[in-house]
Amino acid sequence: MAPLPRHVIAFDKDTIEPRQTVTADPALVDRPYRAQSWRHFEKAEKGAMAGIWEAEPHLERVDCDYDELCHILEGTVRLTDAAGVARTFGQGDSFVVAAGFKGTWENLTHVRKVFFILA
Question: Which among 34, 30, 28, 2 is positioned nearest to 15, based on CA atoms?
Fold first, then answer.
């Protein structure tokens, strides 16, 4: 692998170990699901985190207290707000889930995304 310029971070999966999680709380999800993430960038003092996340199909109830930029690499997601307004995003789509969003995040398929979170 070629060296990187100083202060440049490549999202190379093979350079770090993924964080594996299982979310199973029935108050949050329709069924338990597994996810893994590669956190390539973290600045706790700025509330910033970026990397790649992937998970199997599931529906999760969310109440976001952070802003998240998402870019879908694979799969399809549907976000539905508390008023029932829904939008589906697929491969190649980018969007921001802003702090204050309340509703559901639903992976309709296996999903892989690039994310940047700012708390």
Answer: 2
Decide if pLDDT at 61 tops 80.
Answer: yes
DSSP helix/strand/coil, 15: helix
The pairing of strands 94-97 and 67-74 is: antiparallel
Tokens of 72: 């879908």
In the chain, the amino acid numbered 4 is L
Q: Report phi then psi at 86, rounded to 5.
A: -120, 150
Sign (positive or negative) of CA dihedral 97, 104, 56, 33: positive
pTM for the predicted model, two decimal places: 0.93
- Angle 101-111-49 (CA atoms, 0-180°, nearest 5)? 55
Are 87 and 108 spatial neighbours (Cβ–Cβ below 8 Å)? Answer: no
Q: Count of H helices and E strands in the chain?
A: 0, 10
CB 104 within 8 A of CB 80: yes
Q: Please give the single-letter amino acid code of residue 10.
A: A
pLDDT > 90? residue 82: yes
The C-alpha angle 116, 14, 10, rounded to 5 degrees, equals 45
